[in-house]
């Protein structure tokens, strides 16, 4: 990356599945100027209501592995039997133009981006009020099978153990309150110039 340019920030959301990441991200993207969603690639099945290139770029396992071989990912992880990864395409170019990007990543992906981008990456951890609340939300979303919900709940404890490596931590209990406090933190982070 060129020295002296004002690089955009990488705003990274991590949370156990069902904690409310996507709900909060959609509101924040609609309300914060010059902040754009970084669309990841995945091999998981498209959920009802999702669109190609909107929530994810949906790839076959072979296509994803081909891109790994071509070193087209900044980072990628494998869980729930699927690949998830951040494509290099355009990311640095957009940051160099001063665009701020919002990422929805698992905890390992978040920590990896911090290693790669240092102070330009701002990590936000969203917690559910409790594991019971998390289960209720996953059931309410009703896009996952019972087996998928169990997988996600098992992973939640692992994800929660990373919370102390994040720059900002919030419990998503009352949705509006959580959105306003995350929004205030992002606006403050975006205004701090990167060196
Ligand atoms: N490391 C990494 N994790 C990702 C990426 N994209 C999505 N994830 C994570 O993959 C996990 C599963 O995502 P998803 O299947 O959409 O389920 P949801 O979080 O329950 O809506 C979540 O923890 C996401 O944050 C990525 O590009 N890299
Ligand atoms: N503060 C909240 N209180 C109650 N339900 C919520 C809250 N935030 C999100 N939800 C609901 O919980 C479910 C999971 O949220 P979602 O944004 O899909 O989570 P994630 O992206 O973290 O997996 C959705 O049905 C959503 O409407």
TrEMBL record:
It is an enzyme of class 2 (transferase). Keywords: ATP-binding, Cytoplasm, Kinase, Nucleotide-binding, Transferase. Transmembrane segments: none annotated. It catalyses: GMP + ATP = GDP + ADP. It is found in: Cytoplasm. Pfam families: Guanylate_kin. One of its GO terms (cellular component) is cytosol. ATP binds at residues 15-22. Its EC number is 2.7.4.8. The keyword Ion transport does not apply. Residues 8-187 form the Guanylate kinase-like domain. One of its GO terms (molecular function) is GMP kinase activity. CDD domains: GMPK. The keyword Transferase applies. Belongs to the guanylate kinase family. Essential for recycling GMP and indirectly, cGMP. NCBIfam families: guanyl_kin. This is Guanylate kinase. It comes from Chloroherpeton thalassium (strain ATCC 35110 / GB-78).
